[in-house]
Amino acid sequence: MLDLDAYLARVGLGGRPSLTELHRAHVTAIPFENLDPRRGVPVSLEPEDLERKLVTERRGGYCFEQNLLLKAGLETLGADVAVYLARVRMGGVPGTPRPRTHLVLGVTDGGARWHADVGFGNGTLLEPIPFGPAGEHEQSGWRFRVVEDGPELVLQSAAVDGEWVDLYGFIPEPVPLIDVVTSNWYTCTHPRSPFVTGLIVSAQRPDGERMSLSDWSGELMFTEETPGGTTVSAVEPDEAPQIIADRFGLEATLV
Fold first, then answer.
1. pTM score over 0.85
2. Known catalytic residue: 117?
3. Is 102 one of the catalytic residues?
4. What's the pLDDT tens digit per position in 220-230?
């Protein structure tokens, strides 16, 4: 059902790209953002709505939208894609489980199985990695690995000081789409969901630079990150629309 040519044009590609090429192009072309749920607009996961919003209207989206669009593109190219629901661990209280509100893809392509994720916001994978524990993976200076924690596979990222930080964990059992729809509804409508109460817009560049605008820390901050360090600047709320337009290529009127 996906207009593959339009999707590929949106991410700056053509022809029949590889999984790695499409994953990196998607991450660096389509920003992560929660502008709709923040202004009270529920997020639809219907394929035509995803294509309209992220491709035709050149918007961004959060994990459910981003990864389901990538899934549609990969399946159109002939890959087999399974979906998994993960619990975000980053920033959480150790030992206190969060709901399964993150979407992860398992892609079988070329006889190999891959862990793909273009929707973890500011720290998502630039490229797919082998599915399951398989050593460290360096991507434009950022380092990732997957470790086992009981029944869960946990994606970790190395901080600037070299310490490994848990990003999210998931049980490697594919879920039906109705479970994804339920998790998405909670994420975009629950009055205590951070995607409803707060703001997050982020983007990644081909050279590995990351930038984000968020108030999830309690204050509105613009952050620029490279593997070598981080710069954080306070932002006044009335400055946010212009920053979103200038730095992330999104309509200021959405804020």
1. yes
2. yes
3. yes
4. 999 999 998 99
**Which listed residue (23, 26, 36, 63) is catalytic?**
63
Please pick, among 23, 26, 36, 102, the residue that the annotation labels catalytic.
102
* Per-residue model confidence as pLDDT tens digits over 42-56: 999 999 999 999 999
Q: List helix spans (H) across the chain.
A: 4-10, 19-29, 35-38, 47-50, 63-76, 177-189, 194-197, 240-248
- Domains for the chain: give ranges and CATH numbers: 4-254 (3.30.2140.20)
Rounded Cα gap, residues 51 and 153, in angstroms:
30
- Among candidate residues 26, 117, 166, 188, the one labeled active-site is 117
**φ, ψ dihedrals at 204, nearest 5°:** -125, 145
Q: Which bin fits 162, alpha (ψ -120 to 50), beta or left (φ > 0)? A: left
63 carries an active-site annotation: yes
